[in-house]
Structures are given as structure tokens and as C-alpha cells.
Inverse folding.
């Protein structure tokens, strides 16, 4: 039987490209999206594609969504790609905690809920893979994005433990670590706290960071397709590593993180992000 992948947040960006890549690889795909009409317009019409409505934070809807996906697959899923996510910006000092909790519900717990529902059948079948769309931001943290990075560290930490649990049971677990990917991600990013009002101790840092991100995006940003390619490669190659950097920027940042101690890496990152944010007070 043809293998089937389930992708969360599949209507746009990396999720959509991932669905398209698996379809091109002759798989069947279930695109879990919040807006099925928009997804139908964005994704190709294909008998091997099923679009289902799913907000991953709607715990009551997850069991039926996964059951629908398994029915379409005709059995256990061969791959699940927890991808839904967005970023929240705000200084660690005053980032809106209610918003941060909501982001964790999507980026971490919602995706975990979906994978938990898929795993029993995959484990019993003794095959398949979970390809988590994490980030190089699960290994380093940018200023004003600490809560977002916390969700990605959390996703990679969860995946790392799950990988060991599943190791002898035939289900592989991988984390993708893209750098800057040119999608709608920056438009979906929510800004909270003092920086949202252009006020406070971190307003100047925010202005610099926006410029730094723009330059990074222009110089090193990639499209979503290489991330989708990495997801497909991991799903189809049993020898794929656990952590998979995607993009030259991801490699560069990962290498720098390995090369420097914490102090040295802070300076390196300020340079990379083009931030003039001074030295610690003596
Ligand atoms: N872009 C980057 O530079 C980058 C780098 C590293 C990692 N990532 C990660 O890649 C993943 C995809 O991001 P992207 O770049 O493709 O951004 P994107 O174009 O903004 O897509 C995000 C997707 O997540 C979906 N989503 C958000 N909240 C959801 C929820 N509660 N339930 C279901 N779906 C939800 C969105 O659905 P709607 O269409 O309904 O809004 C959208 O399809 C994210 O996890 C992100 O953290 C992105």
C-alpha cells in the first residue's frame, strides 16, 4: 500500500511545500489545516491528497482528525510532520504570558497531541517516522524571541526523548532545524509588551533586530522547498541523522554555537544579527 504522511499547519509555507513534496514522491498526504477552503485553493487537486480541518490546539478535534487521516491511509500513517507554529516577540521582561501560553499550546502541546494520537498504530506496525519541524532556534536564542525559542527547544527536547523510546520499536524521530525560511512566518509573528508600543528599554534593540532580520532574510533566506526536501529525505532514509540543519545559515549558526563558549557565542550572534547592543555593565 502507498505510504501516507500527515502534516499539521499544511495550508501555507513549509507545511504546504512538504505536502507537495510527498505527493511528488508518490506518497499519499493528509493536509491538516485551519482553513480548508484556503488550502484547497493553495494545494493541487489530487486523489492522493486529503485536506482536513484541524486547529492543533483544539484537543477535542484531534482524535477525529487523526482517525480520518488513518482511514484515508487505510491503516497506520507512515509519517507525521508536526509543523504548525508561529512566533511571539517580546522582551523576556514583559512578553505577554497569556500569549506565550497560547503559543506553547500550538507549537508544542498541539503538535504533541497529534503525534500522540498517531503513534500507537505506527508503533504496532513497527514502522514510520516523526519529522518535527523545529528550528536552528532550538539550539540558539535570539533576543526578543526567547519564548518562541523556548517552544522550539521544548519540541526538540521532547523529540529527543521520544526518539530513544521508539528506537527499538521501528519508528524513527528527526528534528529539522531550518534557519531563515522565506514564508509568511514573519507576517504571522505577534509582537507583545513594550516593544509592541515602540516603548521601553528594548525599543532600540527591536528596531535594530528588524533590520538585522531583513538583511539575514535577503542574504541567506531560502524558500520552503529545501525544508520539504529534507522532510521527505528523512522520511525515506533510515540512516538520516536525528538533527537535520537546513540552509547554509543554519549550518553557520550551528557551527558557531559549537565553536564558541557561551560568552563568545553571544558576541558572535550580536555580529551575525548586526546588533550594536553594548557590553555587560562592569
Ligand atoms: N520561516 C522560518 O524562518 C522558520 C524557520 C525555522 C522553523 N520554522 C518553523 O516552521 C514551521 C512552519 O512555519 P512557516 O515558516 O511555514 O510559517 P507560515 O507560512 O506562517 O505557516 C505556519 C503554519 O502554521 C499554521 N498554524 C498556526 N497555528 C496553528 C494552529 N493552532 N493549528 C493549526 N495550524 C496552525 C498556519 O495555519 P494558518 O494558515 O491557518 O494560519 C500555517 O499553515 C513553524 O513551526 C516554524 O516555527 C520556520
Amino acid at each position: 500500500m502507498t505510504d501516507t504522511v500527515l502534516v499539521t499547519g499544511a495550508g501555507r509555507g513549509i507545511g504546504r511545500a512538504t505536502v507537495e513534496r510527498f505527493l511528488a514522491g508518490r506518497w499519499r498526504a493528509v493536509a491538516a489545516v485551519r482553513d480548508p477552503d484556503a488550502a484547497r485553493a493553495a494545494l493541487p487537486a489530487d486523489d492522493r491528497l486529503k485536506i482536513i480541518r484541524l486547529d492543533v490546539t483544539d484537543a477535542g478535534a484531534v482524535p477525529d482528525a487523526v482517525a480520518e487521516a488513518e482511514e484515508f491511509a487505510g491503516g497506520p500513517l507512515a509519517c507525521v510532520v508536526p509543523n504548525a507554529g508561529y512566533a511571539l516577540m517580546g522582551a523576556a521582561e514583559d512578553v505577554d504570558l497569556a500569549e506565550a501560553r497560547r503559543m506553547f499550546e500550538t507549537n508544542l502541546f498541539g503538535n504533541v497531541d497529534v503525534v500522540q494520537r498517531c503513534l500507537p498504530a505506527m508503533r504496532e506496525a513497527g514502522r514510520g517516522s516523526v519529522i518535527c519541524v523545529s528550528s536552528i532556534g532550538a539550539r540558539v536564542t535570539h533576543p526578543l524571541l526567547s519564548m518562541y525559542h523556548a517552544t522550539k527547544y521544548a519540541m526538540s527536547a521532547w523529540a529527543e526523548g521520544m526518539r530513544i523510546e521508539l528506537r527499538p520499536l521501528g519508528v524513527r524521530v528527526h528534528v529539522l532545524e531550518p534557519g531563515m525560511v522565506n514564508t509568511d512566518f514573519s507576517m504571522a509573528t505577534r509582537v507583545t509588551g513594550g516593544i509592541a508600543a515602540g516603548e521601553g528599554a528594548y525599543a532600540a534593540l527591536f528596531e535594530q533586530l528588524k533590520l538585522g532580520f531583513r538583511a539575514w532574510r535577503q542574504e541567506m533566506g531560502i524558500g520552503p522547498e529545501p525544508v520539504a526536501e529534507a522532510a521527505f529525505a528523512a522520511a525515506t532514509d533510515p540512516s538520516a541523522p536525528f538533527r537535520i540543519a537546513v540552509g547554509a545559515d543554519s549550518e553557520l549558526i550551528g557551527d558557531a554555537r559549537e565553536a564558541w563558549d557561551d560568552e563568545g557565542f553571544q558576541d558572535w550572534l550580536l555580529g551575525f544579527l548586526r546588533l550594536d547592543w553594548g557590553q555587560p555593565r562592569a
User: Anything to note?
Assistant: The pocket of NAP is lined by residues 8-9, 11-15, 34-35, 55-57, 83-86, 106, 110, 133, 135, 178, 180-181, 183-185, 188, 224 (CB under 6 Å). Strands lie at 4-8, 28-33, 49-53, 79-81, 88-89, 128-133, 171-178, 190-191, 243-246. The first helix runs from residue 13 to 24.
